[in-house]
Amino acid sequence: MGKGKKGGKRMNKAQLTEMLQEFFAERPGETLSFKEIFRSLRLTTHPLKMLAIDIMEEMAWDDYLAKVSDNSYRLNQSIQVMEGKFVRKANGKNSVIPDDSEKPIFVSERNSMGALNGDRVEFTFLARRKNHIKEAQVNKILERAKDTFVGRLKVDKDLAYLVTPGDVFAHNIIIPRRKVKGGKTDDKAVVRIIEWPDGENKSPIGEVVDILGQMGDNDVEMNSILAQYGLPYKYPKNVEDAANKISGEITEQDYKEREDFRKVFTCTIDPKDAKDFDDALSIQRLENGNWQVGVHIADVSHYVTEGSIIDKEAVKRATSVYLVDRTIPMLPERLCNFICSLRPNEEKLAYSVIFELDNNAEVKNYRIVHTVIESDRRYKYEEVQELLEANGVIDGTGEPAPAETKEHPYQGENALQLITLDRLAKKLRAARFKNGAVKFDREELHFDVDEKGKPVSCYYKRSKDANKLVEEFMLLANRTVAESIGKVKKGKKPKTLPYRIHDNPDPQKLETLRQFIVKFGYRVKTEGTKGATARSLNKLMDDCNGKPEQKMIQSVALRAMMKARYSVHNIGHFGLAFDYYTHFTSPIRRYPDTMVHRLLTRYAEGGRSANEKHYEELCEHCSDMELVAQSAERDSIKYKMVEFMSDKVGEVFEAHISGITSYGVYAEIDENHCEGMIPMRDLDDDYYDFDERNFCLRGRRHHHTYQLGDPIRIKVAKANLERKQLDFALVNE
After folding, report:
1. Which of 27, 498, 535, 558 has a CA that sits 20 to 30 A from residue 644's CA?
2. CB-CB neighbours of 454 under 10 Å
3. Which residues, at least 6 apart from 279, have a Cβ–Cβ distance to it below 8 Å?
4. Helix (H) or strand (E) holding 135
5. Is 462 helix (H, G, I), strand (E, B) or coil?
6. Is the dihedral of CA 57, 59, 61, 66 positive or negative?
7. For residues 152 and 424, what is the distance between their CA atoms, to the nearest angstrom?
8. DSSP per-residue string spanning 579-631
9. Burial of 35 by CB count in 10 Å (0-12 exposed, 13-18 middle, 19+ buried)?
């Protein structure tokens, strides 16, 4: 009776097609007869059976099915089986990225096997007819990206479930009532999956690992972001205890083994809210008229021994994470803020690169040595900037302060030393750009928050001369350290070292950039040497500086750039135009720097080359964790942005188009730089096509164009804190 009832349901072609696709997808490799198909799907009426046969004919024509006999079919798996990474999207446009390509291939939900974002999967192509999009089907989930998830609890009498963002699961996670751990509705919770979805059960089953607290609380929301990315939101007690046992005392042996820089003028220059000072600069005039500049770096490897409990935790974290209102340090607080930190008026151990520079900032000599230092002064960037400007420096021109005279001596504490460092840094910077470094001065969105973490203002932070002063000497130290190991005589193999590498731009994306900028009257070289490409990009940045299209061109140019990463296989650094480059200057907040410190010490003592494979694995892990940390940082900015705008719903602002996608237009408010989206469905005056190559939307009927960079007026329509999403509406005059 039940069978007849189900089969008797009226079903259209689209519904039956979906049912058949799911049915075959769940049975890869099986040959299925009409009789089996009709029985399994409960198709009991003649019209439904005839419709099913017609659909299967079409699916065979599409190469989705293979016809085995006149009355049987199987899923077409004749195409090569491949592996790749699954990408889940909230809008249902899931995809898989093959291992040997960066091009995503569409995967419909019915063919996804419930794969999650980042899962490694085995898949096959679904062969399609001409003009059909290329599509793939997941056959097997090889490796889950993670098994813990963050979301909002809904607790009913017998059952609870976790509501996650739409791009995580197609269904909510079911939690048995006994595994809720005291959680209440609207609590943010961390849940571990104990049973993954399969063919029968579409919903995963989980258990609560941790209750973070009530939704909307600032600490809870920041910890949720960390937990979402699998980043630690609390420090293990046993690691803290191990750090508390470390003595910060400098022994007689330490003094004997190190160069003494305690009497040389030394200072740290950092952001105003910095607590860990991992680099310091010293400067003194030599008898021959040259300058001795010391780049002194916190000697973390002296205190953190390889394989110790603190080291293992540092490896796991690989980097400090900087959210809007807090830092999640790589090392325990006692180490990063006290023992290792180069605090003023305290003797500290450092690993240093000591340069002899002439007045043109050319390196005459250098040595890499362990030192003891004592910082004379802790400067904030703003203080150094004020001092420079008070002595005639005009920020951004690249010109140093005028020479000191009797009538006009330099003003300010340690002015001569700081102005000299600035002058040398500017020479180094000019030489770097002359050699082909790429000029991308990116602005960062910054929030001022109150004591409860609520944002009260928002603005862009731009890198000024004081920031660039420090940056140039850090770049010089990093490059010099990399060259000291990587540069060897012809025929000799260099010892293993983690390098910071940056590949040449993607040729295809460069070509897209070239075609895009032509309409604004600009040119860029897409062929030729690395240096020629870089100089051409710099000219483009200079030419469009201050023009309405500047941000738009910068954005498209950045997309053409590859991501920098760590590797023991050196290919140079395109963006900096260095043949050899590493990270040595921030061991408090980056694990690769600690690795470099250890290897330098080992090689200085005559040690053999380290295991290449082991260090490459560590490099890959550090590169991955860097990307994860960046994603968490971006999410914290998005959250604060939505929070900042949540009391401005209904208000109208001047804005410009900052991004174009197939599903909507992103706009950035001119006044405060907050970004939101105008959904495509709200552009209802026409049907718009997305022109990916020219970064615009074009109306089919009226030919109106929305272009990257266009000024528009928007109204704040919605501020969804849970989804970290701002929705705007266009205001038409």
Report:
1. 558
2. 14
3. 268, 295, 296, 297, 298, 342, 470, 474, 585, 586
4. strand 135-143
5. coil
6. negative
7. 54
8. SS----S-TTTBHHHHHHHHHHHHHHTTPPPP-HHHHHHHHHHHHHHHHHHHH
9. exposed
CA 396/CA 710 separation, integer angstroms: 27
Tokens of 207: 């258990």
Token pair 């600069």 in the structure block, residue: 281
Q: Are 496 and 596 in contact (CB under 8 A)?
A: no
Which residue, 635, 630, 626, is CA-closest to 586?
Answer: 626
Helix (H, G, I), strand (E, B) or coil at 529: coil
Decide the pairing of beta strands 266-270 and 377-380.
Answer: parallel
φ, ψ (nearest 5 deg) of residue 409: -70, 160
C-alpha distances (whole Å) from 338 to each of 51, 342, 447 are 75, 8, 27
| DSSP string covering 652-719 | EEEEEEEEEETTEEEEEETTT--EEEEEGGG-TTSPEEEETTTTEEEETTT--EEETT-EEEEEEEEE
Place of tokens 């959210």: 323
Structure tokens at 266: 């030394």
Mean pLDDT (10-residue bins), the chain, 733 residues: 46 84 80 92 89 89 82 78 85 83 82 85 70 76 89 88 74 87 90 81 85 89 90 90 94 95 96 90 96 98 96 97 92 94 96 97 97 96 96 93 91 95 97 88 80 85 92 98 94 95 87 84 83 86 81 81 94 94 97 98 96 96 95 92 92 90 88 89 86 83 86 92 90 76
Close Cβ partners of 372 (under 8 Å, ≥ 6 residues apart): 250, 254, 255, 258, 259, 260, 261, 262, 347, 348, 349, 350
- According to the model, what pLDDT value does residue 553 have? 83
**Alpha carbon 688 to chain centroid, angstroms:** 31
- Residues 680, 494 contacting (CB under 8 angstroms): no
Contact 269, 466 (CB under 8 A): yes
Residue appearing with tokens 């021109």: 397
β-pairing, 120-126 vs 82-87, is: antiparallel
* Strand blocks (E) in 127-241: 135-143, 148-155, 159-163, 173-176, 187-195, 205-214
Place of tokens 């603005």: 459
Q: In terms of Cα–Cα distance, which of 142, 180, 147 is closest to 161?
A: 180
Q: Which helix (H) or strand (E) element contains residue 536?
A: helix 530-544
* Nearest Cα to Cα of residue 625 among 224, 223, 319, 313: 319
Please give the single-letter amino acid code of residue 629: A
H or E segment to which residue 297 belongs: strand 291-298
Domains and CATH numbers, the chain: 2-75 (1.10.10.10), 82-143 (2.40.50.140), 148-215 (2.40.50.700), 649-730 (2.40.50.140)
How far apart, in whole angstroms, are the C-alpha atoms of residue 459 and residue 462?
A: 10
- Nearest Cα residue to 207 out of 170, 154, 160: 160
